[in-house]
């Protein structure tokens, strides 16, 4: 793991150089994704026999975090890529898993995903031995920087959701330049129109003879990506605190009117108290996030048939707890750092606001109170969360 973390930190150092300028420009991050590819981070989870890193999810989560310290958007893109690269393993057949993992690893392909099960706006019809996807998705993270896209839709006349992996660059997929939110601005998360995209029935993930073959393991998609969220949230919060500490060391001035004058802001009692409080909370959140990563990684790499509903529920509760803790802590850090750095730190050239904007934007993905309720129901009543598209 250590070598991969070191490599991720080297990439992050390059991203940090112009992170503020790139956030403002809001340009499609082709160069940033190429940087991930060139450093082997895209194929970190790929099988070693195909040239991949052969690493575990525990390592992948740590890598996501390191990238997000420098650039939350690129951390999100990499995390989503890891999830979608694992999608075949989550829901596919053994043959589909082997084919997808060889394809993306050998070609160093980057994944995006047009998946939003809350909106049933992508329909699937049958045409002989083919499935035909058509419709619209409000969000398609990765869009124009992706080589492969995971599609999800509902088969006409049924309640069956079908996932398929298709080339991103084709006439039937039109990515729209309509992602212009206050945070995570480089994630290419705008809408997409799907027109007559055809997929052989044999590529319908997890389907054999047009029937889905369910496993408890299939339901790990939500805990896995929720911990992706949690790790790039943690990286954003760590980046915010590190940036603020550096600013205070270099630029913050001591307050001369408090009756306890100090020569340097680094000796101000309220500055020391403030940073001490934030650092302690961040260390606590990090410990919980690491515990969750250590819990789910062996499950993700174990034989898929071995997973029980109870084991799945236990890890889902732990991830829900980690997510709520880092969201609360990260948002507090993103706000509090301005009180500790001083008025001049609010200048746009320093970009300290981007950390709060990034975390605030993505943490709205699904309501945090529902995660608190899951943990509370487990603590009070011993009930494990039932798998849904968001739990």
TrEMBL record:
The lineage of its organism: Bacteria, Bacillati, Actinomycetota, Actinomycetes, Pseudonocardiales. GO terms for biological process: L-leucine catabolic process. InterPro entries: Acyl-CoA_DH_C (IPR013107), Acyl-CoA_Oxase/DH_mid-dom_sf (IPR046373), AcylCo_DH-like_C (IPR036250), AcylCoA_DH/ox_N (IPR013786), AcylCoA_DH/ox_N_sf (IPR037069), AcylCoA_DH/oxidase_NM_dom_sf (IPR009100). It comes from the Bacteria. Residues 228-365 form the Acyl-CoA dehydrogenase C-terminal domain. Residues 9-97 form the Acyl-CoA dehydrogenase/oxidase N-terminal domain. Signal peptide: none annotated. Pfam families: Acyl-CoA_dh_2, Acyl-CoA_dh_N. Keywords: Flavoprotein, Monooxygenase, Oxidoreductase. The keyword Flavoprotein applies. GO terms for molecular function: 3-methylbutanoyl-CoA dehydrogenase activity; flavin adenine dinucleotide binding; monooxygenase activity. The keyword Signal does not apply. This is FMNH2-dependent monooxygenase.
């Amino acid at each position: 793991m250590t070598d991969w973390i070191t490599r991720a930190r080297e990439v992050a150092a390059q991203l940090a150089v112009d992170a503020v300028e790139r956030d403002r420009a809001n340009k499609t991050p082709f160069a940033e994704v190429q940087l991930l590819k060139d450093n082997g981070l895209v194929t970190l989870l790929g099988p070693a026999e195909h040239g991949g890193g052969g690493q575990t999810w525990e390592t992948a989560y740590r890598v996501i975090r390191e990238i997000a310290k420098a650039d939350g958007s690129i951390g999100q893109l990499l995390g989503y890529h890891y999830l979608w690269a694992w999608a075949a393993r989550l829901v596919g057949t053994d043959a589909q898993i082997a084919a997808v993992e060889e394809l993306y690893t050998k070609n160093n392909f980057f994944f995006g995903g047009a998946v939003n099960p809350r909106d049933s706006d992508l329909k699937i019809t049958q045409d002989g031995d083919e499935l035909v996807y058509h419709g619209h998705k409000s969000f398609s993270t990765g869009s124009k920087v992706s080589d492969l896209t995971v599609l999800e839709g509902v088969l006409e006349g049924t309640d069956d959701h079908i996932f398929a992996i298709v080339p991103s660059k084709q006439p039937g997929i039109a990515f729209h330049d309509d992602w212009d939110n206050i945070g995570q601005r480089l994630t290419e998360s705008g809408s997409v129109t799907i027109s007559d995209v055809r997929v052989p029935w044999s590529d319908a993930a997890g389907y054999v003879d047009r029937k889905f073959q369910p496993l408890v393991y299939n339901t790990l998609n939500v805990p896995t990506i929720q911990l992706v969220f949690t790790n790039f949230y943690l990286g954003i919060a760590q980046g915010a605190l590190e940036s603020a500490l550096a600013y205070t060391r270099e630029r913050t001035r001591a307050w001369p009117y408090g009756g306890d004058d100090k020569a340097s802001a680094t000796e101000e009692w309220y500055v020391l108290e403030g940073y001490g409080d934030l650092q302690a909370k961040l260390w606590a959140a990090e410990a919980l996030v690491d515990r969750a990563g250590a819990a789910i990684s062996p499950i993700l790499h174990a034989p898929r048939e071995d997973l029980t509903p109870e084991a799945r529920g236990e890890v889902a509760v732990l991830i829900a707890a980690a997510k709520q803790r880092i969201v609360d802590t990260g948002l507090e850090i993103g706000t509090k750092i301005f009180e500790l750095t001083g008025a001049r730190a609010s200048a746009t050239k320093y970009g300290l606001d981007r950390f709060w904007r990034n975390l605030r934007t993505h943490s709205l993905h699904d309501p945090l109170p529902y995660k608190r309720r899951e943990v509370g129901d487990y603590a009070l009543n011993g009930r494990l969360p039932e798998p849904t598209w968001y739990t």
